[in-house]
Structure formats: C-alpha cells, structure tokens
Sequence to fold (681 residues):
Amino acid sequence: MHYFFKQHEENFKEWRNSGYQGIPDVGVDFLKHLGSRNFKPDLKIVKFWNEKQWKKVQLEAIERCIYSFEVLGEKDLLTNIVTGGGKTTIIGAMIAYMMIIHDQYKFLILTPNTIVRERLDDEFDPNSPTYIYNVFPFFFNSFESLKTRIQLHKMQPTAAAEGIRSGTIILGNIHQIYEKRDNWKVLRDNVDSLCIFNDEAHNTKAEQYNDLIGKLKPKRFFRLDTTATPDRLDGLHPDSKMIFVYSIAEALADKIIKRPIVFHPDIKKVKLTYEDLETGKTISAEEVPWEEIEKRRMPARRYITSLKPMRQQIAIACELLKEQKMRTPEPYKPLLFLVTFSIEDAKNIARELEKIGEKYGIKKILLVHNETEEELKEAARDLNKDPQTEYDAVVSVLMLREGWDVRNISVVLLFRKFCYKEVDGQIFSVYGPQVIGRGLRRMSKDPEKWESLFIVDHPILKHSWLWDHLKATQYPDELDPANVIIDEQKIPKEKEAEKIDEGEVKLDEAEKKLEIQNLPPTPEPPKVAEPIYEWQKFLDEFEYDFNRMNIVEDIDKIKSLNIDSDLTTLEKGNIPDIEVEKIAAITKTENWPIDELKKQLVKQIHSIAKYSLLEYDRNPDERQVILVKIIREHIKKRLLNGSDVEDSTDEILLRRLWAIIDQIRDVFMRPELIEGIFTRK
Fold:
C-alpha cells in the first residue's frame, strides 16, 4: 500500500516543533496536554503502560491524524500499526479530539466480527471497569464533563435501531447493518455528520464493507482506518491514505511485542501429510490446493491432518510449552494455541492433544470453530480476562484471528499453510500475520524484559516469507519428536534479539556529492541535553574502550596488546603482530570471509544512522544519508587508518572494528550529538 505521508514528513516535523501552528487553539491545548509529563493513564486500572510506546507510537499517530485532517485537509486516513501497538487508544484519542474541537457527537466504530466488537465493547462502554476515558485523561480541564455525555450503543440482534439516535459511540459489525435494515435506515435518515472508525480495516475492501463505506461517505466528517495488515492476498487495500507505519521490526527493537522464535520438526522423521476425505488418499502438504482454499474457492473440510505427523508435532509443542512455563511471568499461565485446517481437523487434533497432553499437565482444552456452542465461543473471547485461565490449550480453525488477543499464548502450533502474493518485491498476505499476531502481545509489565513466542512450523509448509516478514528468529536445530531437546544456549539471548538487521540502505549520488560542511538547517527539535555543536572535535577525541572487545586471557601475545594505555585510535605502529585467526576468534567472526565481514559492517553503519534518528526525533528521513557519511568518515579516520570499509585490506583492523561496533552505536545514539550535527549553533 502506498505511503501517502512521505511527502509531508518535513512539513509535519516543522509543524510539531513550532507548537502545532495552524490548528484551532483548543487543538493546540489538546496536543500539549497529551505531550505533557503529567499525561499518563490511571495505573490502578490499566495493566500495561509503556511510556516509550505511548510517545513513539500512539502520540505520534495521533499527531499525524490531526495534522492530516487540520492542515492537509484529508478526511480518510489509515494507520498501519503492529498488533499490540495500541490502535484502540488512538481511536479513543481521536474521538475525544473531535468532540472537544469540532463538536462531533456521532462515532461509528465498525468491526469485522463479534470478537473484535466485544473487545472494543470493554474499552468504550462507560460502565466497563476498563472504560478508556477512565483510563486515559483525554478529556481535560473544563472538557472533563464531556465524557459523561458519551453513550454507547451496540448494534446487536436484540438492540433496537432507535438506539443509534441517542448513542454517541455506535459499535457494531458490518453484518448488523446489512442484515438489519432498520440500522441502516436510522443511519441514513437521522445522522448528518459522522466520524467513522474501521478496526481491522483490511476488511473494508470486502464487497458489502466497501459498499457501505461508499454510501456513508457524504456523511463522514472524519474517517480513521486501523490495521496491522493493510495489504491483502488479492492485492486490494483500503482506499484511505496511510499516514503512519509502525512495523514489526520497530516493535521488536522497542520490546513492545514478543520475539517470535520458530522451531522446525525434523523433516526426515516428521513427514507432514493430509487425508483427502473425498478420494481417501494420503497426500503431501505440497499437493493441497492451499491458495484455492484460502480464497474460499474450495472447502477446507475436505482435508484433515494425518494421525502420525499430528501426534509428532503435538509432542514437540507440548515440550515447548513445558519450556515456556519456566519463562512466563506471574501471574500468567502459558497457553498452547493450535491452528488447524478444518472443523473435522480441529476435532481430531483436540482428541489427540487430550491423550498426548495428559503427561504434560494439559487437562482442559478449548475447541473453537464456526459450529462451536455460543458458550464456548464466549469462553474464548473471555480468555484474556483471567491470566490464570482454567484452559491449558486452544484449538481453532481460522475463527480466532482478528481481534482475539490473549497475552498468555506462549506456543503456537501450525497445522496449515498460509499463502502470500508477491508483487514488485512486496508481500501481500493477511491470514498468516494475523494468526501469529494473536500471540505477540506481551505479558510482563517490565518494558525492558524480553518475552518470546514459540512457534512450531513444519518446513514443508514453506513459511520462510512469513518469518522474514515477522522478523522471527529460527531455532537452528531440527527437533526429533521422539526426543525433544531444547538447547537453552541456542535460543537467542536478549542482546542478540535487540539487533535487528535492517539491511543496507541504497544510497543515491547525493551521498557521494554531499559536503558535510553544508548541512541543511532543521526545525527546532525536542529539548535534549546540551547539544554537542563541536561534534567533529567530540568524535575525533572520543575514547573507545578497547577492553570491551571480549578478549580472552589465554590467547598468546594478548598481554602485549596496548589496550590498557590511553590508545584510542589504532595506528599501524601500535598494532602488535597477532594472527588474524586469533583476532577472528576473539571477535567471533571466524566463520566470515573478509567480504562478508565488510558487508555486515556496512549494514551496521546504516542501522546505526537509522536508529540514531529514531531515538532523536522518531524520523529516519533523508538526514540518514548525511549521518551515514559522517559515521563512515569517523570510522575511516579513527579506526581504519584512512581507508573506507569496502576498500580496507587490513583484516585485523576490520575484525577489531566489528568488536567495538556497539560502542560506535552508543556514541551516535546520543540525542545531544545528533542535535549538534543537524542544528546550527
């Protein structure tokens, strides 16, 4: 989907740094209130509050919505935010803004299914203990009384359509407008101005959804679409304008979601096959018409998972659940989530799980599909309300997808393939990211603590595209179902998980031609520590700690290294005669040839530039090109004896550079340094 806001980034930053000029005065007060240190939720009500998430994701999205509406005159907007990023909070803030500044009192929140609707019901019902306006003080000063005027009307089979007249927030599924024509009639005849919010907005291109959005367009005062997956398998996407993206990679780096870690069964011992109920034949996963099934041109009920591979993979998943029990923070109980192919498949898998899971302490299994009794569907919807749930595992077809967010899902077992479409290098898919997204919400209140989501995925399903998209880590060993051994040392440690390889940014000729002395002025940024205006001098004199190179003492000649002196720049005369192989072992790059090492160093340089700007003002824009050049010049001058990374032939210096690359990152992550570079004194 096209990123509309790219052309407006610079003007937006200038607007924000100027104090939100050009919008109503009350709107300025609203944004300053949200950005103040005093703005925080009621911590007695809210279970999770991450200040970094609020400032970097939610507040940023709110500011962009207001700028797009007030300054650019755009009424149909979209935010693309990862699951768990806080989309509901953004909706709540924009409702408050439209009430306070524009006297709007009709808000239609459309959802694709009952699960999403009931989740939002908990947030927008004034009688709910988690009512969003009791949690977040979006209404402030004299406007606090406005929240008492809010009435929630839920479009349900038993609810009279007349409730739309009196309701402030109207919450319902698209089906409740099409199947209950009275709802549409009241909307059509009695509502003149309407703010529309589409949660899980990738569904808006469905025929009925799209038709309704078109009919409501003359009445809409403002529209905000929210989704984590705007691009569908059919290549269609919402017709709103994408103004904000917060990706999986960013959320992982910020520890806002769990780390997905993928485990593969031994493909030689676990041969994943399915039974074709129509022909009675056993077929491989590659013979199943997955794409036709996902597009619903062929019924999934025709196929079920073969018994042997089913049992083998259940055993692996149960072992992983046992491992997760030692990692799950209090008071949560870890859950196993099994994603199946069809209703019959789900029933078979639930029966086998009951048998196999007994020795793992799995006593109660929740089976959910379209034919499930309403009581069990409700139990699935309520799972997140009790961290010590009575259930140990959930077996589902695709029903539990959008809007079903259960924090204590710890292990996901996939019995089906998800499809994708690639156009010009862009991946289009919905089901895969949506299903895995159910388990990405964190449990821990500690924003610095890593959490992991374990996923069992058979290699024959060919989901590498999905794991690339989700920035998932893959466990290096294949697992033997008869003897599942998890080597703790091979599960990525926290420090490793923080390093997200963004790949090398393609530089244009501007980098080569750009003179560092001619830096463009930038608008006034947020207040930071005293800017380092003499940044070049600071970089030239900065003392790197070469003791932090993880050098082991049992290596010959190590004591001859001049690492305890004041040496801060490696000069040829100061480099002892030490074998390249030993330096490679010291820096843990022994498996990399020199060309690979150079490639990795270049990637790190670009990553440092990007995340330095993200830390500074949340916008890695064209300044990244300038910063890359500065970092390159610094490394060339201080650490590579006047050579560029690509041109250096000194293998020892290159491997030593890798050893202190994290120190270089720390230097450039200082906001005061970045401000000094990009702001004239």
User: Anything to note?
Assistant: The mean pLDDT is 82. The domain at 259-494 is CATH 3.40.50.300 (Rossmann fold).
